[in-house]
Amino acid sequence: MKYTTPQWDDTIVALATPPGLGAIGVIRLSGTRAIEIADHLFPSKNLLEQPTHTAHVGLLKEDGNAIDEVVLTLFKAPRSYTGENVVEISGHGSPYVLQQIIDACIRKGARLARPGEFTQRAFLHGKLDLAQAEAVADLISSNTAASQRNALNNIRGGFSSDLKALREQLITFSALIELELDFSQEDVEFADRTQLHSLVSAAIDRVGKLAHSFQLGNVIKNGVSVAIVGKPNAGKSTLLNTLLNENRAIVSEIAGTTRDTIEEIINIDGILFRFIDTAGIREHTEDQIESIGVERSLEKMRQADVVLYLFDANTMPLEELLHNKTAFEQNGLQFLLVGNQVDKGDESVMRERYAQAAPIFFISAKQLLHIEVLKERLVDMVLQGTVNTEDTIVTNARHFHSLQQMLSSLQDIRSGLDNKIPGDLLALDIRRCLHYVGEITGEVSNEDLLDYIFSKFCIGK
Known about the structure:
- It is a single chain.
- This protein is α/β, with parallel strands linked by helices.
- The protein contains 16 helices and twelve strands.
- A hairpin with a 6-residue loop joins strand 1 and strand 2 (22-30).
- The longest helix has 25 residues, at 158-182.
C-alpha cells in the first residue's frame, strides 16, 4: 500500500511499546485534540486545566464502563516530542486492554497513526531536523554500543551542527555575491573572496572526512562479514566454535566435514562481525557435494569484507602461503593470515619459518591461545585507526550521496575562486552546495522523500 502524507491538523493515536504481553504498555496521543480526547475518557480530573509535564493516576472509562487503571502524562504544545499536545497513557500490558484504549480514543475522534508519523510531526514542527529524525530510527534499531552511541550523537545534533554552521556561512556569502550582481555596473565586491576561499577549503576538508566516515558507519550499522577460509582440517570450524564459545560447527578429523557455509554473528567491542565458516578449499576432490561446498566458499570469500585465511602452522609450505597471499593482494581483498595449532610446535620457530609472509597471527583455536589478540586485530582492521568513534560518523547512504555532491560543489566553488569566474556563476555553485546541505537536514526536501523516510519507522514512533 502506498504511504501517503496525511493531514496535519488532526489527532493521532498508536501503541508506542512493542506488541505482546508485558507489565505495562504505553499509548501515545498527539494533536490539537489529544488532551480533550483523553479528558473524555478520564473522569477523575479535568485534564484541560492541568499543567504540562504532569502525571495523573485514575480509571479510564468509556460510557461509564471502566477500561483500565492508568497513568496519564501530559505534554502541552510546544513543549513535547512532536511540538503538539501529547498524552501518553500507561496501561497494563494486556494486548486486549491496550486495543480497547486505542479503540476508545478513535471513537472519540483520533485516528490510527501511520508509521513514523509522530517523528514526522516533530520534524514538521521544527523539533528536530531530518538528519536527527533519521537518527531516531537508527537508535531504535541499534544493536551494539557503537551504533547506539553514534545514533545518540546524531539525535543530539552532532551531524546537523556540522552542516548548520557551513550552511549559514554559505548563505551569507551567497547573499553578498548576489547583491554584487545588483551593482554590477559599479564594479564593487561585497563578499571577501579570500575569506570565502578559506571557508570553502575548511569545508572541503570537513565534508571529505564526513564522507570518508561512511565506510566505518556502514560497518557500525550493518556489521562486517568475515569469511574463514583455508584448506580442509586447518581448524576453521574449531575457530568458529571458539569465537562463539559454543559447539556450533561440527568438528572432525575427516577432511571435508564442512560441506556448506555456516554463518554466526558475534559482537566484538561494539561491532557486529558475521563469521562465515566455509568448506575447506582444495583444488581436486571427487566428492560432488564437497565440490559444491568449495565453490560456495570461494563465492563467500569474494563477497566478504575481510578474509581470514587459516592454515596449519606446522605443515603449510611457505611457497604456498606466499602464493595465496599474493592472490589475495591481486584481487584487492582485505585479509588476515592466521597460523593455527601453535600448541603443537615451537611458536618462535614458526614465526621464523613464515617471516617472509608476515604479518601473521599465530593462534591455537583448540587451546584458546591468542584468540583475544586476533579479535583486537579484527577490530583494528575495521576502524583502521583513522576515525574516532566519538566523532560524527555517517551511517546513512542517503547522507553519503548528498555529502559526495556537496564535496563536488565545494570543489567547484574553490576552482571558481581560483579562476576568478564571474559572481553569477559562483552564486550558482554556492546554491547547488546549499541544495545538498538542505537535502540532508530537510530544509530542501520533497513530499515523496519524506513519505519514504518516515514510512520505514515503527507505527508508534
